[in-house]
Amino acid sequence: MRNLIKMILKIPTFIVFLIFYIEEVVRANLQVAYDILTPKHFMKPGVIAIKMDVESDIEILSLNNLITMTPGTLSLDVSTDRKVIYVHAMYIYDADELKKQIKSGLEKKIMGLYR
Amino acid sequence: MIILEWIASIFLVTGAFFMLVAALGVIKLPDVFTRMHAATKASSFGTGLMLVGTIAYFREPFIFLESLLVIVFIFLTAPVASHMIGRAAYLLKVPLWQGTVVDQLHGKYNLHTHELLSDSPPADSQNIAKDLKD
Fold it and tell me: Nearest residue of B to residue A66 by CA position?
């Protein structure tokens, strides 16, 4: 019963999350399309490690999914002890800045959704 | 209802456009990992748009439900596929593009067990990697 109430209370958060997700997907695709269709590329790709605060399976899965679907990043692997996620990014001008962006943006959203 | 048909065709054409972009990206981008960016994002988005076009054209509850389910499952599974392909490519030592600026995954894999460390490996595992090279 308590779980049910909790789920119902999460519905607004879920809708906000869904809108955010769709917006990110559209932005990611416009960017990819721009990159591919313009002849020059200014890519600075690389693989970075990001420490995760999320723990359960579903949260890690969602974070992976979200990272892959957001602009410029692609999740490659999760470490065996599930503490670090390795991300391939297209534009690394400042690795720390990107890490912070993913942690404060995407991971906060996931935590708000499941906790 | 001609307007809805127009909307449907716009969705179909944009979807097809993004799929074309995905295909071009696979040809144009320099290495596996950047290609996966195009192949996952653009192709799943293209499929999604086409299915929205189908919904707008038929306007029937069952087709709505089915298309919605297909969209949900494509967006759930496409990242998993790209995740596995990227991982396999890295384990097979597919070279990264020479413009790659940073590679923090380097040397973190135990090549015998495929275990992945979360921080810098101890001296042992580096020896294992060297053994495998010889």
Answer: B79
Q: What is the dihedral of CA A104, A106, A111, A112, to 10 degrees?
A: 90
User: Is there a contact between A44 and B90 if contact means CB atoms under 8 Å apart?
Assistant: no
Q: Which residues of B touch A29 (CB under 8 A)?
A: 18, 21, 41-42, 45
**Domain edges within chain B:** 2-100, 104-134
What is the rounded (10 degree) CA torsion for A8, A105, A87, B69? 30
- Taking CA–CA distances from B105, the nearest residue in chain A reads A47
Residue ranges of chain A with per-residue pLDDT less than 50: none
Domain count, chain A: 1
The CATH class given to the B2-100 domain equals: mainly alpha
Q: What is the ipTM of this complex?
A: 0.82
Lowest mean pLDDT among A19-28, A78-87, B88-97, B121-130: B121-130
Domain residue limits at A20: 2-114
Q: What is the pLDDT of residues B27-71, one digit of tens each?
A: 888 888 888 888 888 889 999 999 999 999 998 999 999 999 999
Q: Cα separation of B46 and B124, whole Å?
A: 47
Q: pTM of the entire structure?
A: 0.81
Instruction: Decide if pLDDT at B128 tops 90.
Output: no
Contacts of B108 (CB under 8 A, 6+ apart): A49, A79, A86, B116, B117, B118, B120, B121
Q: Using a CB-CB distance cutoff of 8 angstroms, which residues of chain A are in contact with residue B103?
A: 46-47
Are residues B103 and A64, on separate chains, in Cβ contact within 8 Å? no
